[in-house]
Amino acid sequence: MQYKDDVSCQIIGLMSGTSLDGLDICYATFTQSSGKWNHQIIHAQTLSYPEELLQQLKNAPQLPGIELCLLDRNLGIFFGKAVNEFISGFRINRDEIDAIASHGHTVFHQPDKGLTVQIGCGASIAHETGIRTINDFRKKDVVNGGQGAPLVPIGDQLLFSQYVDAFLNIGGFANFSKMHPDDTVTAFDICPANIIINHFSRQLGKEYDKNGETAACHTVNDSLFKALNSLEIYAERQPKSLGWEWVEGSMLPLFERMEMPVEAKIATATEHAAFQIAKRLDENDCNAVFVTGGGAKNDFLIQRIKHYFNGNIIIPDVETIDFKEALIFGFLGALYLENIPNCLPSVTGATKAVVGGVLHQL
Hints:
Elements: E1 7-16, E2 23-33, E3 36-47, H1 51-58, H2 65-89, E4 99-102, E5 105-110, E6 115-119, H3 122-129, E7 133-135, H4 139-143, H5 153-160, E8 166-170, E9 173-179, E10 185-192, H6 194-201, H7 213-216, H8 222-229, H9 244-257, H10 262-283, E11 288-292, H11 299-308, E12 312-314, H12 318-337, H13 345-348, E13 358-360
Parallel strand pairs: 1-4, 4-7, 8-11, 11-12
Antiparallel strand pairs: 1-2, 2-3, 5-6, 7-13, 8-9, 9-10
Helix pairs in contact: 2-3, 6-10, 8-10, 10-11
């Protein structure tokens, strides 16, 4: 890994996940000395989406081209205004912010077709805030033959590997990374998690299954559980990544084929996620795993992972659980500014390591 001594920058990282639980904003300092990176979260906050925008994001994959382009612009404006409020609320000196680094909101992810689309116009963010903005982190990896995902493992490797060598993020999808002694990294998307649990929770008028309370009180459908675990993708080797298109085309039909209460679907989706997560952790010889993302707060899901997993589960502080992805996309922005590759081809399958992202200057 390249490095320069005495690097220091302050970045606002933005993360909008597939589970649609809001925009995570994380302002952090990143420093590097003699090849060792350190970070400090200064301020962090999650902002809920207005209902109209939330519905548009849910329907984004079905929008006509012109409407999707307008949503891209409007989401960028929303991100920019959210950052302005964040800066004002925490009384941050704009002159000290080196850049905004935005993941954007994924609408399409089909790397086998060379396609990945994250909306949230970077030019609009830069225009609204007056701060240079980096976005579109995935596309350069994809055009070099990679999956464009997961990108978080480079942050796991350089910012968190002193704690443990295996990391699990349970967001819309559960993704995993493991550091090896030779500095290589194994990482891939495991399975749908919150994205499918939340999908059925909304049918009950809830945005998510708080603490797994619905799943805990209802019975898993064994036939559906077996069918989910038999999906072909679980036999595929990495690199691999998942998107909503796969869920909609391959997983939802299994739920729709079987007559059962919505509560049973939530219970089965939760059990399936726990089983697949534990299976992959055990297959990769994990003795302990550091868990973040919204799913780390789902007590029942964590309980079921522990039931299947042979190792230990480490749950960090709430700030790390909530903002690790936004923090790491801020870190990808820091690497971009230093012209250091910010993806791992051993993880994504790309032909080379690239400095992913597009810079929008003022």
